[in-house]
Amino acid sequence: SSGINAEWPLRPGEKDIEKLKKSIADVEDNNLEDDLAELHKQATAMLERLQKIEKIKKNIQELKRPLIAELKSMSSPPVDVHRSMTAAFILMGENREDLRDWNNIVILLGKTGRESVKRKVQGLKVEDVTEEMAAKAEKQILGLTSDEVYEANQAASLFYDWADMICFDKKQESK
């Protein structure tokens, strides 16, 4: 054995960025990229995605109150904003029907403690999301881009990015 202990397939909840970095480095140090080319490629791509998700989660954690307040103060938000927030809350387990009414999203944004949106985003793992939830969320953000949502509202664009990544990862997981 070459001393490389890569467990495959890696499942999103079990992934540990540091372990993944070490496994990739082990493969590179032992000049095994050719033998393990496909695995190396997948692991490197997964690492990049994990790091992006962590960055988005961190940006959501660091969202300033005025940005959330701006989002909550919209009485009738642009469609892109409503759809992005709906997608995010579907992934957090909220009922799609309740999210049709923007006021319910405003209420969810105002929750604190264990029910706070930041805490829910931080704690969510891809395996907590059902394929049905991911499909409903993806339907909400289909055709939107991060830039379009950002133009409408900066905070909503972070939730769009997060939802988009979670939906993508759920698809990869079920392949």
Report on this model:
The chain is an all-alpha fold. It is built from 9 helices and no strands. It has helices at 17-29, 37-61, 65-73, 79-91, 102-110, 117-123, 131-141, 146-152, 154-173. α4 (79-91) packs across α9 (154-173) and α8 (146-152) packs antiparallel against α9 (154-173).
Q: Report the mean per-residue pLDDT as an integer.
A: 84
Count of DSSP H/I helices: 9
* Structural class by secondary-structure content: mainly alpha
- Global shape: elongated
- What is the number of strand segments? 0
Distance between the termini: 29 Å
What's the story with the biggest beta sheet? none
Low-pLDDT runs of 5+ residues are none
Q: Mind telling me the C-alpha Rg?
A: 18 Å
What is the H/E order?
A: HHHHHHHHH
Strand content: under 5%
In which range does the helix fraction lie? Answer: 55-70%
Keywords:
single chain; 175 residues; mainly alpha; 9 helices
